[in-house]
Request: fold
Amino acid sequence: MKTRVTELLGIEYPIIQGGMAWVAEYHLAAAVSNAGGFGIIGAASAPADIVREQIKECKKLTDKPFGVNVMLMNDNADEVAKIVIEEGVKAVTTGAGNPSKYIGAWKEAGVKVMPVVASVAMAKMMERAGADCVVAEGMESGGHIGSITTMCLLPQVVDAVSIPVIGAGGIADGRGFAAATMLGAEAVQMGTAFLVAKENIVHANFRNKVIGAKDIDSVITGTSTGHPVRSIRNRMTKEYLKLESEGVELMELEKLTLGSLRRAVVEGDDKTGTLMAGQIAGLIKEERTCKEIIETIMNEANGLLRG
Reply:
C-alpha cells in the first residue's frame, strides 16, 4: 500500500510505531522497521547520551529508516533535537509541546517532522510551521491524551490541512486501519498493539495485563491536573483517583506516580506501576512478532478496503 507517508519515509507499509517511554527502545524500533513499518525510539526524559546510544544500536540491527520521538517538555529536548540531526535520523515525532523552534533546523538537515496533535488548531499551526505531516491522536490512546476521540478528530484534521495525516488512538487490527483510511488517514500510528510484541523489553507482568484486559479496563487519571493519562486499572490508579476526588495537591499525586512507568515496564510492578495502554487493549489476546502484527493488519485491511 503506497501513500504519501510511505513515500515520505521510504517504508513498505503505512504503519508507524508509537514512541512510548521506556517501551520504545532500539530493539522494538528496529524490529518494526525490519518488518516494513516505521520504528520509533522514544527519547522521553532519557539523558541525551543514552538517546544517541539507542540510535547507534538501532542502526546495528536495521538498515531501514526509523525515527525518534522527542518529548518537548523535557529539559534535554534541545540536546536531543541536535542529536537527531547529527545521527541522520529519518524523522521525528514530537509530543508535549510545540516543536516550531526546531523545525527549521530539522528540515534543513533533511529530517522529516511529524508532530502529534490532539486538535485541529494544533494541526494547522504545525502545517504553517513546516511539518511534513501530523499524527492526529484521539483520546482512546494510552499514556498522555487529549479530549477528542479518533473518530471525530481524524476527519476534521484531514479536512483542515493539506499535508498527510496519520491516524492514532484505538487502532490495533485491520478493521481499525481500514476505518482510519476511510476517515482520510494515509498511515496509522500504533502503540498499545506493540506492547506485547515479542521483540520488545516489556516485562511479562505488563504484557499479561494487556493481554488479559477487557474493554472497560482502562482508566484516565490526572484529569484534575490538566494532564490526563490513560492506563490499565490497578491499585495505583484506584488510589490516584481516590486522592483526586478528595482534591489533594498536585505534589501528593506526583509522589504516587514518580518512577511508576519504569517500575511497570522494567520491573513488572503491575500493582503500583503505571500500565500505560489504550482502550484497544481489550482486542489484544496474544504475543506476536512485529512482522506478524504488521502483516496480519495489512492483510486484513487490504481485504476490507478492496471489498
